[in-house]
Amino acid sequence: MSASWPVEIVNTGTELLFGSVVNTHLAYLGQQLFSLGLRIDRQTTVPDGLAIVDVVREATSRSQLVIITGGLGPTSDDVTREVVAELTGRTLRFDESVFAKIEAHVLKRGFHFSDAIKRQAYVLEGATVLPNDFGTAPGLYLPATPAFPDLFMFPGPPRELRPMFQTYATPIIRKIVGHSDLRAMVFRTTGIGESAIQELVGADLATIPAVEVGYCAQVGAVDLRLIGTGSAVEQGATIVRDKLDSYIVSADGRALEEIVVELLTKRNETLAVAESCTGGYLASCVTNVSGSSAVFLEGNVTYSNEAKIRALGVPGLLIERLGAVSEEVAAAMAEGARARSGATYALSTTGVAGPAGGTEEKPVGTVFIGLASAMGSTEVQKHFYPSDRLTFKQVVTQRALDLLRRRLSFSP
Amino acid sequence: MSASWPVEIVNTGTELLFGSVVNTHLAYLGQQLFSLGLRIDRQTTVPDGLAIVDVVREATSRSQLVIITGGLGPTSDDVTREVVAELTGRTLRFDESVFAKIEAHVLKRGFHFSDAIKRQAYVLEGATVLPNDFGTAPGLYLPATPAFPDLFMFPGPPRELRPMFQTYATPIIRKIVGHSDLRAMVFRTTGIGESAIQELVGADLATIPAVEVGYCAQVGAVDLRLIGTGSAVEQGATIVRDKLDSYIVSADGRALEEIVVELLTKRNETLAVAESCTGGYLASCVTNVSGSSAVFLEGNVTYSNEAKIRALGVPGLLIERLGAVSEEVAAAMAEGARARSGATYALSTTGVAGPAGGTEEKPVGTVFIGLASAMGSTEVQKHFYPSDRLTFKQVVTQRALDLLRRRLSFSP
């Protein structure tokens, strides 16, 4: 696929080279294009301004599809539109309907309307306008000519680019590229390391020559990637499912929280959480999932001991005797959250996130995770994840969600 | 600086183009090089394997310093060493001392020692070895010749590259480059748009020729960047401080939550939050800050109406009459959270995150943010941010934190 359809990405943005912003466009576009049967051959980042001229000239001479991000905004260093006009010998015309949409967007938000904003209503002759439903600058698609490949221009902010790509560019690219037999499956796993996975499935997968296998460690999870023809990937998937079994969270890259919300919805059950060391991150992960309000009743971020006692009914004596970071307090937090909210399940977290607060007995990284439910006794797991504060919150949240996922998946 | 010292980065790695891993090398190296007085002019990503040949040839012909990441590992698609040897006409020799270090590293971790691992002990003639203290493959530095620029090769994993860069490459680059007067300041602003900022400061900043001005829109914030000589940046900063005043969150790129925790700590005051539409994200942002446990008492993620009534004491009749998304309920949530926790301040959020749940009167994007405090009446702001679910949570959290920041900054 790649050989016959060279694809290049050009990212413009001084902030990307300066290091104040991480370039997430490449990973996003890589995933999206792959699902359309395309792979990116080369990606280049250049500063805002005229440095883009050489790079776009090179990319368009080498590739069959070129995607440019950034440089469509209102400020003076935004020159993508003008540079492409110059390179392709096209004129820029002021588009009244694009302008009306920009004006409506700006006024609706009560922003001040400036002349600079008006610049974004200029459109390349012959280009298809990709509407910006979440900002002002529209995207542009320029169909291939004998001298020039297919070319897309997107605004730089990810929250504008992503829905625009999905809604307006995907159908166009699908039409350009046609059918592809290239297929990918991404198994999201949790609770098992990268090399342990490779030991379980590596040798067996190597016997299928038409499958390319990749491993990618995430925080608290490992993705196992199979790329190849449809039938070969299916053959590999059977091996993976057989060997990795309950470690598999999803076979389409979906995150743990999506699976948990889906399982709760199917079972018509509800969840409450009581967080200490995860500080709201667990609740936030669950509420990121659209539709979670039907199954998520409430979260308690009980950072102080007083809050644990008042909001969750944890006995003060328990905290005094055993400490807030203990198996008993984790259980009492989960049970308290469940009893007060009336939820089917309640998860709790209490641990030492660090960098301060560790002791010899309970060093930074120690954590207890509780799960209370209607049936049976409360389950508490103890783990040890010494790491930085943010990673700790993420890993503990993954473990808590996986504790619930396993309960939901394997109990009637 | 940039004009006289063109710098390029070449990142190799199929996983970067496939989208399973975000390329964080560029942002890291951008920051590091800037602190050494250098700016990256161009960055390119190519797949593992021989695609690197053309890119390295182009980069070395254009630039004075080239940094290659990846392709030094044990597997067959790791070819950086061989490609550079070929391009520079140097031989590869087996280095016994490098080999001994790799062997010790592998055996210490109880890994299996394979012949493939041995490949990593080959070193380019004339190159300086950069020891790998966190992995097997060493980095390499090739000093400039009349035909070839200075060239660094680093292993791909960030946990190996970063300490290697800091410990072993920084002193070399400092020696090559010499003293630099280049300086940068990044003002984080919030509550004002990119083009409004440019209108306020653009013309005045343009009168300082030695300063380069950049704008970068984040979610709920805009960064304003000044780059130039020390005195010119100081001159620009005076203009920015004067014109943008209370919109400025920090002058060193620090985030809103860090500033809020710092202000609360200094004032010896505390915070509680009551979240509906932000679903725990507000609490999680605050608890991301190390030291927040001293000022953050508790969070309530009251997604259901029952939770708002029980946990926060919001009158049921209020919700029934005016709806959960209303000015009055936002105020009652904040006041309830403050009264029950005993915190100095309480923030509340209630809104329609979407995609479902909007009405004609209160469409998706409508949100009320409350701030209750010991002094004076409770303040409630109404905003409208139609966007995707995650962006909505982020923007509302920024607005809530900024409401508190302004109170903390401008009241005695």
Structural write-up:
Two copies of one chain form a homodimer. By secondary structure, the first copy, chain A, is an alpha/beta fold. Chain A has three domains: 7-177, MoaB/Mog-like domain (Molybdenum Cofactor Biosythetic Enzyme, Chain A), CATH 3.40.980; 182-250, Alpha-Beta Plaits (2-Layer Sandwich), CATH 3.30.70.2860; 257-410, CinA-like (Maf protein, Alpha-Beta Complex). Helix content of chain A is 42%, strand content 24%. Chain A contains 15 helices and 17 strands. In chain A, the strands form four sheets. A six-stranded mixed sheet of chain A has the order 2-1-3-8-7-6, sandwiched between helices. In chain A, strands 14-13-15-16-17 form a five-stranded mixed sheet, with helices on both faces. In chain A, helix 3 (52-62) crosses helix 4 (80-88), helix 8 crosses helix 9 (230-244) and helix 10 packs parallel to helix 15. The longest helix of chain A is centred in the last third of the chain and has 22 residues, at 389-410. The first copy, chain A, starts with 6 loop residues before the first strand and ends with a helix. The mean pLDDT of chain A is 90.
